[in-house]
């Protein structure tokens, strides 16, 4: 048994924009808590959190990492996450492991894209938020203005629990103190604001407070914690992670005020009944569990990684029950149990074997190939259908075609790609149907570059080709299609005839791709056995063929409702293959009459540049079919231009920005939606498409 109980655990994810100081803060916390004999630093590669070679070289976090500290009998698990918008998948995937998301904001740069994104993601995932404003030592800060910005953007419930004091050399607690000296704002006013915010949640407290009774702060723990859980309060703290100001206070605050697994909001586990019909999306039913070590085991694998010494490592959070190395677990709905073997407590790159992991805690298990990212581990077959509700990740849109430098390495390449796809939820790869090339997709240029480097380190070198755009196809109106497939060759013939109707899926249909659906609904309206029931699946197969292969330019089709309306069969010559072919060509026929359009990915961009470059940037983006959405002037003479643009035009924006601004500026880009391409672009792309017309 560990020396602590579930009630003593705190799990905190540090997230936020790149360079805000998350990793530095974690190194500072470990040092302040006496966990490390020296203070690690990202500056000289000695960080306990950024320990991977590529992280040290680039001086920023690339992977999430798990660390812990012990303070006043509490076990505090900290997850550091990368702040680059390209790597946000690594931060999002850790949300299910914690009770609190701590968003670190750079006092000078202000609220940047990833901070905002992670704040939104925490709300979507019903996860309490804490804000840390770091780098309070930097010169020329306007901290009161930043606090107001935070409140404007994330709500008036973002309230300071401490304030910088002594010229930035200390912080003063305005939650536990009614008065005191601070550099900015009034301790008394901040104290009142926070007390008023939390007493609101309890009638008796509120009445007493209104009657003039100042509550005893220590007695407010439960209601404070509830306010945090409900998002009714977002505590805000200040730090200077480099010199350690506010760091001990931050640890104290986590230990004392933030929710333990027993108090925190439960993660959205659901049961997916396998009884649902395959054609219909299964309706998930919320699954109730408790962070109780006495109940059956329920754990969730939130990260899989490869350790140079132990091989595959799966990091998991126990949400219910407990496990030891001897525990026989089931992975999801698997019927055969496996023994966990060695359980490891992780401190950055160090591992220590532990005998047991209890509900609420985070640990890792080594060398089990059957355990994958996002798996649920349990020791009770009744939990076989329990899953975690999916996390919404940004769609990887940046494509690169790759071929191994060494012929014969294709198999090795697939194995590596599969491994990376498991380690990184925002990495996808496919084989292009037209060109048979392997195409990898990531969030941005940097993301893919890092992945290529990782493959090279693992011994696989590839050639890359200019990025490809993942176009899609759809239709704009209703139309009918027909095909009769008839073939007489020698003995037995082939016969199948299909009539069908297509229409766009209604904009509110849950089956639409942008709603997370499969993008296709097939309805069987065939009357009186014109197509015998046993051939309907073959027609459906033909429909799926076209959906994958495209009809106008060779890209996947989406958001179609296809009604199979009529057909003919032949008692001898009707075969599956005939109906599959008929279905395929009938659908193609219908689509061509249904005003087909080519869709292209549109990205949302935020470009940070010096103020005097704003005109150049907006002009340049407008020339790239971009639409400017707004501008923000932030601290330090910088401005943020917000825009939407077709991905095809801004694929190499990194270089474009460099040439326009002479090296200054940075940007983030994320997929927003698909939109029809202008007609002349569609003509160009479609003209290059030469489908094979095989009438097998
Ligand atoms: N002056 C000052 N510099 C800081 C502070 N905290 C961090 N830094 C510096 O800011 C830079 C970035 O710090 P990191 O801790 O790597 O930032 P991060 O948020 O982990 O960044 P990513 O890993 O890219 O997301 C480093 O040079 C740090 O030394 C601070 O409080 N004050
Ligand atoms: Mg970092």
Would you kindly provide a written description of the structure presented here, covering whatever features stand out?
By secondary structure, the chain is α+β, with helices and mostly antiparallel strands. It has 5 domains: 6-257, P-loop containing nucleotide triphosphate hydrolases (Rossmann fold), CATH 3.40.50.300; 290-376, Elongation Factor Tu (Ef-tu), domain 3, CATH 2.40.30; 398-468, Alpha-Beta Plaits (2-Layer Sandwich); 473-590, Ribosomal Protein S5, domain 2, CATH 3.30.230; 598-682, Alpha-Beta Plaits, CATH 3.30.70. Helices cover 25% and strands 30% of the residues. The protein has an 8-stranded antiparallel β-sheet, with no helix packed on it. Strand 12 (298-307) and strand 13 (311-320) form a beta hairpin. It is built from 16 helices and 35 strands. Magnesium ion is lined by residues 22-23, 50, 60-61, 80.
Tell me the number of structural domains. Answer: 5
Rg (C-alpha, Å)? 28 Å
Write down the CATH class of the largest domain.
Alpha Beta
Helix tally equals 16
Mean pLDDT: 92
Q: What is the distance, rounded to the nearest whole angstrom, between the alpha carbons of the first and last residues?
A: 66 Å
Residues in β-strands, percent: 25-35%
The CATH topology of the largest domain turns out to be Rossmann fold
**Quaternary arrangement of the chains shown?**
single chain
Assign an overall shape.
Answer: globular
What binds here, in terms of ligands, is:
guanosine-5'-triphosphate, magnesium ion
Main structural class: alpha+beta
Number of strands: 35
Please name the CATH architecture of the largest domain. 3-Layer(aba) Sandwich
């Amino acid at each position: 048994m560990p020396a602590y109980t579930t009630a003593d655990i705190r799990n905190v994810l540090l997230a936020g924009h790149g360079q805000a100081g998350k990793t530095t803060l974690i190194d500072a916390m470990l040092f302040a808590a006496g966990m490390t004999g020296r203070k690690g630093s990202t500056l000289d590669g000695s960080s306990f959190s950024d320990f991977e070679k590529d992280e040290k070289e680039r001086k920023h976090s690339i992977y999430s990492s798990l660390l812990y500290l012990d303070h006043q009998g509490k076990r505090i698990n900290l997850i550091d996450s990368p702040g680059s918008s390209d790597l946000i998948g690594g931060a999002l995937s850790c949300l299910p492991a914690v009770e609190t998301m701590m968003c670190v904001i750079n006092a000078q740069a202000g609220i940047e894209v990833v901070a905002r994104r992670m704040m939104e993601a925490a709300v979507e995932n019903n996860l309490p938020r804490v804000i840390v404003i770091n780098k309070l030592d930097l010169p020329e800060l306007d901290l009161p203005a930043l606090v107001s910005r935070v409140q404007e953007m994330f709500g008036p419930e973002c309230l300071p629990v401490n304030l910088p004091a002594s010229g930035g050399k200390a912080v003063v607690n305005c939650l536990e103190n009614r008065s005191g000296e601070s550099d900015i704002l009034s301790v008394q006013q901040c104290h009142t604001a926070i007390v008023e915010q939390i007493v609101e949640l309890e009638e008796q407290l509120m009445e007493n407070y209104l009657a003039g009774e100042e509550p005893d702060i220590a007695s407010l723990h439960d209601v404070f914690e509830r306010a945090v859980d409900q998002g009714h309060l977002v505590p805000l703290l200040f730090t200077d992670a480099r010199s350690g100001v506010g760091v001990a206070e931050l640890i104290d605050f986590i230990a004392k005020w933030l929710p333990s697994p027993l108090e925190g909001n439960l993660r959205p586990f659901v049961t997916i009944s396998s009884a649902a019909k395959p054609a219909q999306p299964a309706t998930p039913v919320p699954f109730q569990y408790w962070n109780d070590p006495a109940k059956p085991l329920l754990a969730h694998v939130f990260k899989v990684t490869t350790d140079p010494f132990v091989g595959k490592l799966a990091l998991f959070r126990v949400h219910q029950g407990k496990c030891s190395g001897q525990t026989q677990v089931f992975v999801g709905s698997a019927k055969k149990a496996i023994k966990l073997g060695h359980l490891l407590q992780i401190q950055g790159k160090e591992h220590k074997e532990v005998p047991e992991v209890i509900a609420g805690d985070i640990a890792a298990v080594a060398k089990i190939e059957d355990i994958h990212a996002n798996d649920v581990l349990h020791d009770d077959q009744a939990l076989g259908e329990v899953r975690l509700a999916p996390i919404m990740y940004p769609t990887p849109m940046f494509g690169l075609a790759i071929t191994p430098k060494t012929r014969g390495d294709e198999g090795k390449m697939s194995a590596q790609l599969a491994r990376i796809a498991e380690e990184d939820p925002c990495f996808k790869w496919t084989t292009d149907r037209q060109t048979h090339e392997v195409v990898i997709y990531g969030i941005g240029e940097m993301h893919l570059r890092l992945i290529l480097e990782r493959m090279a380190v693992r011994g696989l070198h590839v050639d890359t080709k200019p990025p490809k755009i993942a176009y899609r196809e759809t239709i704009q109106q209703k139309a009918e299609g027909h095909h009769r497939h008839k073939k007489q060759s020698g003995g037995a013939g082939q016969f199948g005839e299909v009539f069908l109707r297509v229409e766009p899926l209604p904009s509110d249909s849950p089956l639409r791709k942008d709603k997370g659906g499969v993008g296709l609904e097939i309805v069987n309206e065939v009357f009186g056995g014109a197509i015998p029931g046993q051939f309907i699946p073959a027609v459906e197969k033909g429909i799926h063929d076209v959906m994958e292969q495209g009809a106008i330019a060779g890209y996947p089709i989406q958001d179609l409702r296809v009604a199979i309306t009529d057909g003919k069969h032949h008692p001898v010559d009707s075969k599956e293959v005939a109906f599959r072919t008929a279905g395929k060509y009938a659908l193609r026929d219908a689509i061509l009459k249904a005003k087909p359009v080519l869709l292209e990915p549109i990205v949302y961009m935020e470009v940070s540049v010096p103020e005097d470059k704003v005109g150049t940037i907006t002009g340049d983006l407008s020339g790239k079919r971009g639409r400017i959405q707004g501008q923000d002037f932030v601290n330090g003479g910088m401005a943020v231009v917000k825009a939407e643009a077709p991905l095809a035009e801004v694929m190499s924006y990194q270089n474009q920005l460099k040439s326009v601004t002479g090296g200054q500026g940075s940007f983030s880009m994320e997929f927003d939606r698909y939109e029809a391409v202008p007609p002349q672009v569609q003509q160009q792309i479609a003209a290059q498409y030469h489908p094979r017309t095989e009438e097998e």
